[in-house]
Amino acid sequence: AKRQVLKGAYLTFTGDPFKTDPADCYLYESDGLVVLKDGKVEMIGTRSLIEPELAELDYELTDYSGSDKLIMPGFVDCHVHYPQLPIIGAYGTQLLDWLNKYTFVAEQAYSDIDYAKAVAEVFFKELLRAGTTTAAAFCTVHPQSVDAFFSEAAKLDLRMVAGKVMMDRHAPEALTDTAQSGYDQSKALIEKWHGNGRALYALTPRFAPTSTPEQLEATGALRREHEGVYVQSHLSENTDEIAWVKDLFPGRKGYLDVYDHYGLIGEKTVYGHCIHLTEDEWGLIHESGTAIAACPTSNLFLGSGLFDLDKAKMQGKPVKVGMSTDVGGGTSLSMLQTLNEFYKVTQLNKFSLNAIRAYYLATRGAAESLYLGDKIGSLETGMEADLIVMDLRSTPLIDFRMNTVKDIEETLFVQMTMADDRAILATYANGRLVHARD
Ligand code: GUN
Ligand code: FE
């Protein structure tokens, strides 16, 4: 494919704004060029510096210049359930009732691979419309739900992390596997998909209450036997859930200790929610390099609680945090809308999330939480070319508000407060245009 050159303002993160001054952690270039070749960022910088390098080369130019557009890394969603897209916005219950009433009904349909492919197709279309280029996704208990997901992702050449849900108790019979069949099916899926193109596999025990000790043991074994695979699950989302885990695993110190006991914490391991952690659990997450997927729209929608970002990032023992939608418990695939809600959650905790930190958590910080910070989440030479172009005046009211914005930080904050998928003008994945608005 021909070299692509994108012209316009761009923004990318160069450091961790929770560790050093946010002003020193990003790079904003108002007159830039981004050169894409063979799915990678080949060159990026000020236009006057890159233009001479391009003189002899063959390329196709796309002009995104002007003060109303911004090129950025694609968003990274660290925790989402694609099979729950058909039940997004289901009224009236908290976690455990919501699972039984809506989720466990909807997920039964994925025994049909054609249905699974049809939903996966909608999911990717909506994800790219929202500007998200990588997600760590839960499928269902059916291996074919994983085949559907990764085969649709491959058509668009997307970097995706996903896995078959394992559940061998406390779920309808049509949604359960066994310790042995969960092991065998996961192993076959790892061999088929992990490292196949841009696909990466995640062992996915749904959460401690739906797996027997035997199944968690088998999950730990799979992890030891397949270097580099991910683990994803849920942790300390809801107080009734936590009490249930205590009843089911009386020999363990607490919820996280269940996962730790079976070898399910550490690098390339992502737990959704983590709303009600104990002091010991925060410490263990820090030491082990386990990542937290923060899911504000879901936590508000299901009434689960407020994630303590101040504790997670500012109090001496920082942990990896990546922004996540948790659709269908979450209410939007838009990372901008997710940041909007996250800001309000932090306000209620008396810690006001600023825009630089917010966008970091949705791009480079999320990529680092998935141990993919060397591949995605930033715009630099050699990184995979997953990026978006934002329209900074996507609605009449945002257009009006932008007239009084004074700098890039305020611009970003207004966007995350007011904008949504309408602000995503274009999405590129692996150097290819995969979504264009209108
Ligand atoms: N805990 C176990 N399963 C789920 C799920 O599907 N969604 C959410 N939000 N929490 C869970
Ligand atoms: Fe979830």
UniProtKB/TrEMBL annotation:
Cofactor annotation comment: Binds 1 zinc ion per subunit.
EC class: hydrolase
EC number of the protein: 3.5.4.3
Cofactor: Zn(2+)
Biological processes, Gene Ontology terms: guanine catabolic process
InterPro entries: Amidohydro-rel, Guanine_deaminase, Metal-dep_hydrolase_composite, Metal_Hydrolase, Metallo-dep_hydrolases
Reactions catalysed, as given in the entry: guanine + H2O + H(+) = xanthine + NH4(+)
GO cellular component, one term: cytosol
Pathway entry: Purine metabolism; guanine degradation; xanthine from guanine: step 1/1
Domain of life: Bacteria
Function: Catalyzes the hydrolytic deamination of guanine, producing xanthine and ammonia.
Family: Belongs to the metallo-dependent hydrolases superfamily. ATZ/TRZ family.
Protein name, entry field: Guanine deaminase
